[in-house]
């Protein structure tokens, strides 16, 4: 039995987060703690009685958001005993980060539009993902690539760049099955098929770090969800922002692609030896955020680490993380960095 924490602010996105957290808790027979945070009103010259009243209103709203969320879930009597609610005074991100110290998983909505002060907005989800002490599952603010509320990754110009790169390098080795002989991408492969990750959990793979542990965490979720696992690595070889590519470098690119693909295939094979989940791999000549953002358009879950080198340098430490979390169409599981055993 484990312990899952979910942030609630009364917004529709936090309702989606609670639904995901409840589904995972049911599958793991885990306890679920729903947390709402509120802040005191900041009025320096407000009479003490009025200030206390406003603070009471904030607590009331936080409590109401929790009660309404839990009531709407239709819990059984046994589930009601395993679902607890907690109202915390203070910063929302800090509350969830502190709760993550004793949790197995923290779930938070990507964005909030709740009625309570200290609501779980995009900056909160990013902070929890970057600093949480257990894996953090970030639920996007829309339900999928066909939601009209926000633009889909499938229509993103960066995704179109990725499709163009695949067209240009279709004959290069780029996809394989980790069990048995490694297959290669034929020149006739459909680019849309290469970008289709339906039914497969995607894990961003740092080829220099050999993140076996991260991939195995992703495999656990793939098994629980009944999906396969795809290791995705990316490195931009073909494009440069500083001028034309030299003929010497251009001639070396195909071999460098093959070397990266061979490395990814080796890692996928090691992962496959340690799990019963079918494991595949795909390498893209593209920016990491572009590859993962495009994958999220069809994948049920994308898994990344809090740190990376090589193909995923700076993940969740700068622009790459913000780009992924802001554009994702799929839930993103962020796993704190740990050293390989």
TrEMBL record:
<feature type="domain" description="UspA">
    <location>
        <begin position="2"/>
        <end position="140"/>
    </location>
</feature>
<dbReference type="InterPro" id="IPR006015">
    <property type="entry name" value="Universal_stress_UspA"/>
</dbReference>
<comment type="similarity">
    <text>Belongs to the universal stress protein A family.</text>
</comment>
<dbReference type="InterPro" id="IPR006016">
    <property type="entry name" value="UspA"/>
</dbReference>
<feature type="domain" description="UspA">
    <location>
        <begin position="201"/>
        <end position="336"/>
    </location>
</feature>
<dbReference type="Pfam" id="PF00582">
    <property type="entry name" value="Usp"/>
</dbReference>
<dbReference type="InterPro" id="IPR014729">
    <property type="entry name" value="Rossmann-like_a/b/a_fold"/>
</dbReference>
<protein>
    <submittedName>
        <fullName>Universal stress protein</fullName>
    </submittedName>
</protein>
């Amino acid at each position: 039995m484990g312990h899952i924490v979910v942030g609630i602010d009364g917004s529709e996105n936090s309702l989606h987060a609670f639904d995901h957290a409840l589904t995972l808790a049911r599958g793991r027979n885990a306890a679920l703690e729903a947390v709402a945070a509120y802040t005191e009103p900041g009025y320096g010259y407000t009479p003490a009685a009025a200030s206390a009243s406003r603070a009471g209103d904030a607590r009331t709203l936080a409590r109401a958001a929790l009660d309404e969320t839990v009531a709407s879930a239709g819990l059984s009597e046994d589930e009601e005993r395993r679902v607890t609610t907690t109202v915390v005074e203070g910063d929302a991100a800090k509350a969830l980060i502190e709760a993550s110290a004793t949790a197995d998983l923290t779930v938070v909505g990507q964005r909030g539009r709740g009625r309570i002060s200290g609501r779980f907005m995009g900056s909160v989800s990013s902070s929890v993902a970057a600093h949480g002490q257990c894996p953090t599952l970030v639920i996007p603010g829309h339900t999928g690539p066909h939601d009209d509320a926000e633009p889909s990754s499938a229509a993103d110009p960066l995704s179109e760049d990725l499709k163009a790169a695949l067209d240009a390098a279709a004959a290069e080795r780029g996809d394989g099955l980790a069990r048995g002989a490694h297959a290669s991408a034929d020149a006739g492969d459909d680019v849309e098929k290469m970008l289709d990750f339906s039914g497969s959990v995607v894990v961003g793979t740092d080829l220099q770090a050999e993140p076996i542990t991260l991939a195995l965490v992703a495999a656990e979720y793939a098994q629980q969800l009944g999906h396969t696992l795809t290791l995705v690595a990316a490195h931009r070889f073909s494009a440069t922002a500083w001028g034309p590519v030299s003929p010497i470098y251009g001639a070396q690119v195909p071999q460098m692609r093959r070397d990266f693909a061979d490395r990814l295939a080796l890692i996928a094979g090691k992962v496959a030896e340690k799990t019963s989940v079918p494991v595949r791999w795909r390498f893209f000549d593209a920016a990491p955020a572009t590859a993962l953002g495009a994958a999220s358009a069809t994948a049920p879950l994308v898994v990344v680490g809090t740190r990376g080198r090589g193909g995923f340098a700076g993940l969740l430490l700068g622009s790459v993380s913000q780009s992924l979390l802001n554009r994702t169409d799929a839930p993103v599981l962020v796993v704190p960095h740990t050293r390989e055993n």
